[in-house]
Automatic annotation (TrEMBL):
GO molecular function, one term: isomerase activity
Species this protein is from: Oleiharenicola lentus
The UniProt record lists the keyword Isomerase: yes
Name recorded for this polypeptide: Sugar phosphate isomerase/epimerase
Domain Xylose isomerase-like TIM barrel: 110-323
Amino acid sequence: MIAQVSTWFVSPPNIMQPSAKGETCRPVRPKGRYSIARSVPAVALPWQWQSSASASSQLFNNNFPAIATSRMRASTARMSLTPPLRPVPLALQLWSVKDSVAKDFAATAAKVAALGFKGVELAGYGGLDARGTKAALDASGLRVAGMHINPAKLGEINQIIDDALTLGSKHVTCAFWPRTHYVSAAACERIGLRMAEFGANLRAVGLQFSFHNHDAELAVHDGRSVLSWILGAAPPRLLAMEPDVYWLHHAGYDPARFLLEQGARCPLIHLRDEAEIGYGPVDYPKVFAAIDAVAVAEWLILEQDRFNYEPFESLRRGVDRLAQWGRA
């Protein structure tokens, strides 16, 4: 059992306060009709995993719940490129075209739809409000796969919920966490507890909170990765995971293995490569086989922040490659 916490890691913004010694942290309830946070006990999940800096080492222990075990074994043995039995729609993380979004959100949405994307993941609204954003997306036939929020905005719970409900976004994702906060295993657990409290607020109105990783979350404290400590402090129903395939690879982890072992917690999956997807070091056939085996993903979300061509041309090439794999 993870030790219960009586002090809080306050930065950034403090929506939690330490409760009496020996009790779990309790939320500072935000004012308004969404003030519904509840105390969430710090529980250790049975499938918490060990990490290592070496990709060839044992990254996870094997006492996690069995998820489609036979399909996992068959999939990892084949790693085939056959079309998925359960098609997962493709969205674009709009941070990929942030300059275009800032100039003209509606025109950008139309270009994204023309490339064949079914939805978008938002990272701001390009000067519009949530209603204007929804109208522009509706006009282009795009759905909202999810919305990224800055951790500095976690205190604005009412606005986040209002925007998500207006946009029809089931998923709200913390886009990153400052890596300077990952100072110890205990600090990482406290971050996980804080995310669980925020996730409880969202769950109460039918929304799902997730966390998006970079490479910093694969650093190790006390024999386990930062990500393991964070996720281990929060029940999956309150904190899902949006794994970034490239950042897992970059940190020396096998993304396919991560997805096989933790994929039941991953409704959103970020597809990224060093530049255009499919032209870098990530073994995407293996990744897609793992996604198919777990069969939980609701959206595949392409993100690109390095370009060898004009951004929309790069994205077109990426979509063409994904189509060759039956993913677009």
